[in-house]
Amino acid sequence: MVTKVLIDVSTAISRSSRCKEILRAVLTEKVTNSLNLALAIERRFAHFGDFK
Length: 52
Fold this sequence. Notes:
Elements: H1 2-28, H2 37-44
């Protein structure tokens, strides 16, 4: 039981560390293209098809 808890804690810490790495990489990357909010929204919802 103690071993399982230790493994679970280790896995959680590992996942947490990986999430922090991913967020840090994404949030600190330089954006070279200008942000087009309308285009980003259109792409995000494109799979729903044409709607108004």
